[in-house]
What does this fold into?
Amino acid sequence: YAVHEGKPFFEPLIKYITASPVVAMVIEGPNAIEIVRRTMGATAPAEAAPGTIRADFALEIGRNLVHGSDGPETARQEIALWFKEEELISWPRAADQWIYE
It folds into this structure.
């Protein structure tokens, strides 16, 4: 969240995201960033499409429940923040040949 440092909401944001346990995960695959962001919904819960995480479970823009990287470079930085290289596992799933062209 260094990009938000100095903004009025930065300190409350850091306090909020460090107040309780989090579940950090790395999701990979074709168009993973786009698909995950679509599943999360718009940042403002009131503007998020029904069926998305933020529309269904969040109430405020500052506490919108979920974060996803906005691009490959940001994803690399954020993955490095949470995980050591040896903690990351990538493998081909048996069903992939039937799902992806």
